Amino acid sequence: MSIASVARKDFLDVRRAKIVWFVASLYLLIAVLMFYFGQQGVDDPEFHNALLALSGNGAILIPLIALVTAYLAIAGERESGSIKYMLSIPNSRRDVVLGKFISRSAIVVGSILVAFALAGALGLLWYPSVDVGMFVGALALTTLFTLTYVSVAIGISAVSASRSRAMGGAIAVYFVTTVLANLIRTGLDWVFNDIAGLGLSSDALTFTESALSPMNAFFRSLGLVLPDDLAVTAPDNPWYLEPELMLVVLFVWLLVPLAIGIIQFERANLG
Amino acid sequence: MPAIETTALTKRYGDSVLAVDDLDLTVDDGEIFGFLGPNGAGKSTTLNMLLDFVRPTSGSVTVLGYDAQTEIHEIRKRIGVLPEGATLYERLTAREHVEWVADTKNADPDVDALLERVGILEDADRAAGGFSKGMRQRLGLGMALVGEPDLLLLDEPSSGLDPAGMQEMREILREEADRGTTVFFSSHILGEVEAVCDRIGIMSEGTLVTTGTIDDLQGELDLGASISLEVASVPEDLALESLEGVRSVAVEGTTITATCVDPAVKVDVVERVAAATAVEDIISEDASLEELFNTYTHGRGRGRNDSEAAPDEPVRTAEVEA
Prior knowledge:
Protein name (chain A): ABC transporter
Number of helices of chain A: 12
Pfam families (chain A): ABC2_membrane_2
Number of domains of chain B: 2
Keywords (chain A): Membrane, Transmembrane, Transmembrane helix
GO molecular function (chain A): ABC-type transporter activity
Shape of chain A: globular
Number of domains of chain A: 1
Strand order of the largest sheet of chain B: 6-7-8-3-9-10
Structural class of chain A: mainly alpha
Oligomer: heterodimer
Organism (chain A): Natronolimnohabitans innermongolicus JCM 12255
């Protein structure tokens, strides 16, 4: 199986890269900080508060970890020429894209798992009770969210002919979908309502901003795992703002960038 | 079935760059074929099309009987490739490189023996990031040999190797050819192909200007064999031209140069001159491959327009190294 062979070799290679360990350890740090400060000086600390803090604050960091870990996966090999070794042996171009997605996902998801395992241990140690269902749910959603950004990074890498273009693409995606995520809504409102005069409802804008940023979709999907007393979604939400639909949005973000990456990479001239 | 066959193969980049122009090339099964030409002649572009790294603008390519685009997977199972100037995986050791290729090819080579054969066994467990260019070439060759390929495609295999390394590389290529492997390699170094190739093809400006054995090409060009005699004084009435097999005679100072159709005629020339005057020195030359090469690519390899060069083969000034 060539995909497995690409993934095995890439895993062996990239796990020796220091930058990957550095960014991955940042997430571990966030986990420790959130669970430490969640109970520090609090009489009756709530496990789910710390878990939400980890999910929410960690969500800014996850795209960074995923993009840094994966943006050079293919573009770097194209620039150095090692892609020619890769494609001179029985690997198809699709094998390369999918194999790299698997290996880089394993690295990033691996570091998320370690951080959650530590968070769970600290929860048992420092908190009166641990909500296992919510913990598993938050972990599953965080993993899905992580994979969307690995997919985006691999997609960018597959369509970029050089390291610098891949870096430009990764930085642009990071800023637009995370740092500037809150501005997406303002911008949409301005374009569609103030300029075009379409009179889009607030709900429609909310959906659009969620669809355009996996991070926003992830935040809204967390409604799935919140205890009932913490549910943030209003009961009269339209169907397209339900957390279930946000899962669909996340799956689209998982599949589409990979598919575009495969199609473009299969067409590329690798001279 | 030829090992490689291209038919009317053409590759254009944009409107202005014609990297490969209507190339018909056949490499027979089991031969060592030297693909020669200055940088920018279209050698790498051709190799890239054989490997489906670059798609032809028109024309077709088959490798080992398989179509290079639709059946590339079958081709990759049966070939070994040493790409030009490609870097290895810096964080992986030499052994891991070979094991990875073996894993992908479903081959089970004796990794130590293979690394020994290409001369880097003692560095087997070092990361390739610290390798010299010569060591990288050796490892690249080792990777190409995994799984006993039917065809070896080597792009400038001796670059970065010292003379001893080049000699070892040539021996390995001969051993592989003896095993029945077809060897196709590109080079701009003439000595390399002269020493090892059954047949050569010369590329210039995207076209194949000639193919044949080195003997064929020398005969075809009729460059002849020349002999120069340094004499004490040039006697008159030598009438060397009247000797059978002597094509032309030139006298420059005290040096008499005769060009012969056949090297055997040189003896007659020496005897005739020695009978008439004292011969101080004899210089005998066959047409060298370098001469041949320059004849075919003369004025094309050097001083070309940058816009004519294929993007993957930047034109450098000192292009043809003899």
